[in-house]
Design brief:
- By secondary structure, the protein is mostly helical.
- The chain has two domains: 47 residues, no CATH class; 215 residues, Orthogonal Bundle (MetI-like fold), CATH 1.10.3720.10.
- Helices cover 69% and strands 0% of the residues.
- The protein has 13 helices and no strands.
- The longest helix has 35 residues.
- The chain starts with 7 loop residues before the first helix and ends with a helix.
- Pfam families: BPD_transp_1.
- It comes from Microbacterium pseudoresistens.
- One of its GO terms (biological process) is transmembrane transport.
- One of its GO terms (cellular component) is plasma membrane.
């Protein structure tokens, strides 16, 4: 089978289209970055992304504009993200091993039910969840956001790990069983060390999802001292008074830095985990 070589003209057109599409997609982020360095009265009058001067007043004002310094909200989000990552890695890996390696009654129906839960939106279950957590006195604490992570409720990550574990040769399990290991030993000493790409992908996805979580955080976290970054950013907008767009853009840039750094340093493991899980 022969393949057609791209001509110089088609290559130039393809690159022009890709560069144009990239600029269109990244323009809102660049405009927000430029607006964070502009005075309030110039933000919406200038659609460009080039600066005539740089002012840091929005960053100074935004850091102390709310009830607490913005670092408090970064710390709250960091605590939730750390707990969510630990919870998902612990619970999803154990559940995935059970589905992939242990033959127990109703395994296939339970696995099918678990996959169906991926299609259930959070808006369907949030009301009964809120009633339960409210009766337990857990509203306005981190527990409603962290407890589900330790109960293997993220079915997508379980499915991702199940697919990865199925790609590990079962002969390794049999060899470990001959050496006297049970399921706990096989999981901890054989399967878990080989799951590093899947664990890394799960950790990165959980980090990004938890850092950006707004809906459930808005429902369960009502006190200013435990608000997370997305909820705090919403506080800059006021429908009954003047909104502070400049400080909000500045703090939005600050809140993007952890996500940018985790994706920058973890993209290798993210791509490896997804590609390995999907191909095998």
């Amino acid at each position: 089978m022969t393949t057609k070589r791209a001509t110089p003209a088609s290559s130039i057109i393809r690159h022009v289209v890709m560069i144009t599409a990239s600029i269109v997609m990244i323009y809102p982020l660049l405009w927000m970055l430029a607006s964070s360095f502009r005075p309030q009265d110039e933000i919406f009058s200038n659609p460009g992304i080039f600066l005539t001067g740089i002012e840091f007043d929005n960053y100074i004002d935004g850091w102390d504009a709310l009830a607490h310094p913005f670092g408090r909200y970064l710390l709250n989000s960091g605590i939730l993200v750390f707990g969510a990552v630990v919870g998902n890695l612990f619970s999803c890996s154990i559940t995935a091993y059970a589905f992939a390696r242990i033959n127990f009654r109703f395994r296939k129906p339970l696995f099918a039910i678990m996959l169906i839960t991926i299609m259930i939106p959070i808006h369907v279950v949030v009301v009964p969840q809120y009633i339960i957590f409210n009766q337990l006195g857990w509203v306005n604490t981190f527990i409603p956001l962290l407890l589900p992570k330790f109960l293997a409720t993220d079915a997508f990550f379980i499915f991702l790990m199940v697919q990865f574990i199925r790609s590990i040769p079962k002969e390794l399990d049999e060899a470990a069983r001959i050496d006297g290991l049970g399921h706990v030993g096989i999981f901890l000493r054989v399967v878990l060390p080989l799951m590093l790409p899947a664990l890394a992908a799960t950790a990165i996805f959980t980090f990004i999802n938890s850092w950006n979580e707004f809906f459930t955080a808005l429902i369960y976290l009502t006190s200013p001292e435990i608000m997370t970054v997305p909820v705090a950013l919403r506080s800059f907008l006021d429908s009954t008074a003047a909104s502070s767009y400049g400080p909000m853009f500045a703090m939005s840039i600050v809140s993007l830095l952890p996500v940018f750094l985790i994706f920058l340093f973890g993209q290798k493991y993210l791509v490896k985990g997804i590609s390995t899980t999907g191909l095998k």
